[in-house]
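Internal tracking record. Fields below are filled automatically when a chain is submitted to the structure queue. Please do not edit lines marked as system-generated. If the sequence contains nonstandard residues, flag them in the REMARKS field before resubmitting.
Queue: standard
Priority: normal
Entity type: single polypeptide chain
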Amino acid sequence: MMRLPTLTALEHLAFVAAGLLTYVVVTRVRRQRRHPYAALAWVMSIAAFPYLGLPIFLIFGTRKQIRPATPRQPAPAGPWAALAPLWATRLLAALGVAGARPQAAVRFFDDGEAALAELLRVIASARQTVDVCTYVLADDEVGAAVAAALAERARAGVRVRLLVDAIGSLKVRHSHDRLLKSVGVQVRLFMPALFNPRRGRANLRNHRKFTLADGQRVWAGGRNLANEYFIGQVGEPPWLDLSFSADGALAAQARALFEGDWRTAHGVRRAPRETYAARADEPPPAPQDPLGGPAAPVDPVPTTAQPPGPGPSHALAQWVPSGPDFHEDTLHALLVSAAFHAEQRLLLATPYFVPDEGLLEALVLAARRGVDVLLLLPAASNHRLADWARGRPVRALLEAGARVRLLPRMLHAKAAVVDGQLALCGSANLDSRSLFINYEAQAAFYGQAEIDWLADWFARLADTGTPASAEPPSWLGDMGEGVVATVAFQL
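SYSTEM-GENERATED OUTPUT FOLLOWS
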């Protein structure tokens, strides 16, 4: 019978000390700024269970993959610079984000069927390339429709690339392989669950969701490619969500993001993200017909979507990416800054509300100084632990005078409106995992038409919700919320 090795108390303490020293070295040398709850959880795990906690930390603990600071971009300039608030554009330029640019057209979709029709239209319009980045590609009607559309473009000679998160599509990630690979679609999984040092940390998930056609048109938002986001499950309505499409510079910026993510999924950990802004400002290639020569114009597929947005002089927008591939936490910085700059209203929608203390304090202070802070949440989300963890921050907002509305249906949209200056729509939830760990991307819109559309959407949904309660929980419930809060950064 094999005997397990035994350690003396002194040897055990030495191992614990070595584990804690490893944590300090990894987090400080690599400048891995952490939420206090996250730091406390890691330290407690390594101290209490060093033989398990230390290996888990080495596998999952790294939060950033790019060490040098992202080069700051030039201050906003040009005829459209005055259309966007300087506090936002200057901040994003300082954090290395590619600047805001006018768009040829912007369309929003709160209806799932219209959003799906627009997605299929964008794919069908491609004559040179189709690039898809998604967290989930499901084995259902929507997943099959998207896979069929991609296969059709591949058969027509279009280069098609599909990037799917390995964890997000863990149960269904091979469902469409036979069809897609048989016609030449390139498929990559982002950071497989089994640890591979060449690909980074298994805990770093790609939560970005967008589809590109020829680097000139982009469809994006909060929807994964599954039934519940578009047409609903059997006997259930679809989730409340948002998508948008844009023609112009947003597509070029999304293309720069996709190229970096595609390399990372292949195992190139040190993707040259310091050149992201430069690549994002490159003009997209002119589409070419697979048989040679310029591509013929594509007639749009009729949809029930909203009409196109305003012209190029007003539809000003930019991507605000965040994640391990950027030195700073750009989305978190923008949201905190927005809370301090808001003067009239701050409208927020998210399925999971588990903010860090800095963001929560900024929102509370905004409400206390009279800003109309409105937060939309689902009454019951698809993650019960996240619902439990949101209790304390929701009560803090209510006590400060904010409005919190609980919607009867599952809300999956991630959006914000700041006064009449800025609107956000994309993939990032208001939780620490999205803001500090995941690869995320929100689009910032500065045009009045886009801001007004999203503000009206907030107003319509708020009328269907019920006010959240500020009543404190029982002492047992309060203890449970405290325990969940210690691991909230992973929710």
